[in-house]
Amino acid sequence: MDQTEDSRELERKIAQANRIASSVSDQTTVGRLLAWAEDLRCKLQQHREATRRKDESESARASCGGKMAGLRPRLDVLASGGKSVDRTQSEEIPLTSRH
Is 72 inside any structural domain? Predict the structure, then answer.
């Protein structure tokens, strides 16, 4: 099932829950149906936000023209918590042998 079908299915279930709730007289059942519809609305909103984020990231990658595809993060920058490291003033690390 693709993204559009997922959204349509959630919308269909929300409408169905609301229709059934409007035709039932038992207040416990009405409350449960309305709570279920609210839960489905939350899922639908999360689904739409995830779809939007995915679409935005895909369009950002496409706008790079593939320039970023072959780049790798610099390990020294990652190891320093994202700060650039000056490699011109390197420290000497003594090598010790372990027996």
Answer: no
